[in-house]
Amino acid sequence: MSGGITVISAEGMNFKELNDNIRAAGGDIRLTECFGQRYIAAGLGGRRIIIEGTPGNALAAYMDGAEIIVNGNVQDAVGDTMNDGRVIVHGGAGDALGYGMRGGRIFIKGQAGYRAGIHMKEYKEKTPLIIIGTKAGSFLGEYMAGGALIVLGIGLNGIQPVGNFTGTGMHGGVIYIRSDEKPRGMPAQVTAEEAGCEDIKAIERQVREYADIFNFDINELLSGRFFVLRPNARNPYHTLYTPNLR
Amino acid sequence: MAAFDFYPDYEVVRNLDRCIVCRVCERQCANGVHSCLEEKNVMLADDSQCVDCQRCVLLCPTRALKIVKSDNTYKQNDNWGKKAINELIIQASTGSVLLSSMGNPETYPIYFDKLVINASQVTNPSIDPLREPMETRVYLGAKPAAVERDDRGRIKNNLPPQLKLSMPMMFSAMSYGSISYNAHESLARAAAELGIYYNTGEGGLHEDFYRYGANTIVQVASGRFGVHKDYLNAGSAIEIKMGQGAKPGIGGHLPGRKIVADVSRTRMTPEGADAISPAPHHDIYSIEDLSQLVYSLKEATEYKKPVIVKIAAVHNVAAIASGIARSGADIISIDGFRGGTGAAPTRIRDNVGIPIELALASVDSRLRNEGIRDRVSVVVSGGIRSSADVVKAIALGADCVYLGTAALLALGCHLCRACQAGKCNWGIATQELELVKRLNPDIGYKRLINLMRAWKHEIEEMMGGMGINSIESLKGNRLMLRGVGLNEKELEVLGVKHAGQ
After folding, report:
1. Domain count of chain B?
2. Partner of B234 for a Cys bridge, out of A147, B17, B93, B213, CB 3.0 to 4.6 A?
3. Set of chain A residues whose Cβ sits within 8 Å of the Cβ of B276
C-alpha cells in the first residue's frame, strides 16, 4: 500500500495471474510495468486503476463504473460494451475503441485506430462519450446508434482528422469533427453540417472535462470549425425489405 | 396493370351450413381476413390477407372453417414455378429485398430421414427403460485432457465449469423482441422445471426472468444489445453468436416498431429505433480475435461460466470448429440451414448454409482426428423435429441439441412463417399486448414440459433398443446408424455404412 493505493507490478505476469491479483487486491490500484496484459478491468466497477505502461487488448471491456488512467498507449478493443465509468489515456488507442459502448466516457489524448465508436448506443440516461485528441482512422462511428464521438484534430491545423467511410450505417447518436473540411464519402443516411453555436454549447461541458484532464486550453479546443454528423433516419432500412410469406 | 399482383396462395373455405356468425374468426385474426356483412348476417373472407396460421380454423366452435391451398394455377412450367413467379412479381412491385421467417422450407435432402437406427437382436439384450435405469444426463463444457494430482496424490479438481442437463436437449436462442414475453416466460419456466437451459438470444434478459438464471444461457452478439455485467453474470453460460443457420453471414435487424417499451428496456435501446446487429463482430477477424472475446467474457465473469460459440453450418465448418475448439471456448454450437428465424432475407434463408447432419458429422470427425474433441462439447440445431432426430444427432457426434422451431410448435406456432410481420395470432412472434395475451405461460410451459418428457422417454426407448443405457455411450456411436438411399460420398461424410452392410 502507498497512500491508500495498492501497487502491483505486472512484470512477468500473464493476464490471468494479473487480473486475479487485481480482483483479489480490491480498492484502488497502481499497476506498474504493464506490458500487453489483456482484459484489465473487465466488468469492473467502483474502483480506480492507474496503469503505467501499455495494457493489452480489451482493456475495460464491459466495465461498469471504474476509472482507468493509462500513462501510455492502449491497444485494441478498449471499452468493449462498456456500461459506465471513465477511461483516460495519455497516449493513443488501437482499433475498435469503445465497440458497442453504452455508457461512460473514454478520453484519448492522441489518436485512435480504425472503427472507433463502432455501434455505440445510448439508452435513457446512458449516453456514452468518446473524445479523441488528434485523429481517428476509417469507419469512425460505423453502425453508430447513440452517444457522442468527438474528434478534435489537435495540431492538425484544420486538416481532416478522420479517415474514410465515417458514419457508415449510422442510425443514432452524433459525431463532432473539428476540421476545415467536410468529411469525405459520407453515406446517404448521414448528414454533415457545420456546427452552430447551439451545437458547440452542447459539447462544451464534455470538452471542458477533456481539456482539464490533459491541460489543454478549452477555448482553443472549441475554436475553429466543427462538422456535426447525424443520421437522417432512426429506421434507415424500413424500405429495404418486403414481406414474403412463402 | 392488373387489379391484383397475383391470386392468393391460400383460400378460406367456410361451410355456411355450420357457420353461426359468432364472429370469433373475425376477432381472432390480426390480419383482418374475416369480416361480417351484417345486413345479410354472413361472414366474408379476404383470402389475400390470410397467412394460414390456422388460428381461426382451430378456434371456430362449429368447425366451419378450413384453409386450402388455392388450385388457381399458372400454366404448367417445371422451370418457372408459382413461387419463383410470385416472388419476382413482389419484387417488381416493391423494389425490395424479400424477407421471410422460420427455417428453410425448400426441398433439399433431409439426411435425418435417410438414417436409420440400430436395435439389439439375440446377441446383446435390449434394455427396458421402464424397469431399468437409463442415464440421459449430460454435462456440457471442456473436459480436462488428464487427471492431475497434487503432491499427496490426491486428485486435483481441474474441471472447467460445466452445464448439467437432465436430458440432451435445450431451447435455442430466441430473443425477447423476436418472441413475446409470455413465450420467454414459458421457455424459462419449462427449462427450470426440466433441469435444462433456455437461451435469451440477442435481446437482453428481462428483469423478471433473472430468477431463472440457473437455467439460462445469455447471448452476446455483434449488436451487444442488453449486454452488461449483471446480464453476463445472470446466466449459467454465455453464448457468443457468430452466426445463425437461417442467415449465415448476415446480421440481424429488429425493426423499430417491435422495440416497444419493455423490449426497449431489456435491450437497452431506444423505443421505436431499429436495433441493428452488424453482420460480423467488427473486432473479430480471426480465431485469435475470437479467443479475445471468449477470454474477455471469462475475465468479466471470473471463469465461472462456460463460453459457447455459436456458428452457422457453412462449407468450411469443420476447419472453423477446429479453430473454435482451440480458442478457449467450452462449447461449440452449430446451427444448420433449416434453423428458424424471426426474419431473414428469403434468398439467404433458402440458399446459404449446409444441412446440420453433414456439418455435425464432419465437425465431430475433424475434432476427433485432431485429438481435440474433448476440449469442447458440440451442440447442434436447425432441423431437429423429433426424438429420433435427437438420437441420430447424438450418434453422429453431438453432445446435445438445441430446439427452436420444435419448442415454438409446442407453444402454438403453426409455421405460417409470417413472424416478420409481428402480428402472430398465437401470441408468440409479436409484441402487441392483445396478441401476446393469447399465449398463457401457465399452459405454455406445461406443453413444453410434456414435449420434452415425451421425447426423453422415446430417447430412452431407442437407447434401450440398442442395448445402450447411457447417452454417453451413444455419443458419436455411428455404428448405431445406417444410411438408406445415400450415395457413397454422402455416407463418407456422414461416416456411416449403408443399410445392409
Report:
1. 2
2. B213
3. 143, 145, 169, 171, 237
